[in-house]
Amino acid sequence: MSAAVGGEPVSFITTEKTDDLIVSFAITDATTIWGVLSLALLRTPKYEFALPEDERRVAVSHESHPETRMREFLQFIRVAPPAVMIETTARRYELDVSKVERQEIRSALEVLKRMNFDGTFVLEQG
Q1: What is the pTM of this model?
Q2: Does residue 42 sit within a domain?
Q3: 68 phi, psi to nearest 5 deg
Q4: Residue 5's pLDDT is what?
Q5: Sign of CA pseudo-dihedral 89, 108, 126, 118
Q6: Is residue 67 a part of any domain in this protein?
Q7: Structural domain for 120, as ranges
Q8: Of 26, 22, 21, whose CA–CA distance to 11 is shortest?
Q9: Does position 116 have pLDDT exceeding 90, yes or no?
Q10: Chain segment 14-29, per-residue pLDDT in tens
Q11: Residue 84 — pLDDT band, cuts 50, 70, 90?
């Protein structure tokens, strides 16, 4: 069963697989100077040993919610194109990825799987 399209429209997804593991959704927003807002998922396993145990997981930040930056953590993500649903410790995000290239979604899933090496969040694919 496919997910219903809805939520914030995503223009593209970028990923990084270095010391930092990053999945960043570029959300279309005509009110900003660049026309997009970033919703970023970040994990840096190499340096997590220096963090308190309850912060050794994926941090989530959304440019529309700077007050919770780096204090919001990923709990659940469902990647079921054309939709992505993200639940964090602070809120829920619904994204429309219908305009995103399939390869970008595959790359995001690859990085998400690497981020979840210790099972700190639930990852569902549909």
Answers
A1: 0.89
A2: yes
A3: -110, 5
A4: 63
A5: negative
A6: yes
A7: 8-125
A8: 26
A9: yes
A10: 999 999 999 999 999 8
A11: very high
Q: What is the mean pLDDT of residues 113-119?
A: 97
Ranges assigned E (strand) in 29-91: 36-43, 59-62, 72-80, 83-88
Q: What angle do CA 40, 110, 120 make, to 5 degrees?
A: 65
Tell me the pLDDT of the chain averaged across its residues: 90
Q: How far apart are the first and last CA of the chain?
A: 8
- The reply to whether 91 falls in a domain is yes
Residue 53 lies in a domain: yes
Positive or negative, the Cα torsion across 86, 6, 109, 21? negative
40, 61 in Cβ contact below 8 A?
yes
H or E element in which residue 32 lies:
none
Q: Looking at this protein, which amino acid is placed at residue 61?
A: S
The one-character DSSP state at 108 is H
Q: What are phi and psi of 102, to 5 degrees?
A: -55, -40
- Which residues make beta-bridge pairs with 23? 15, 41
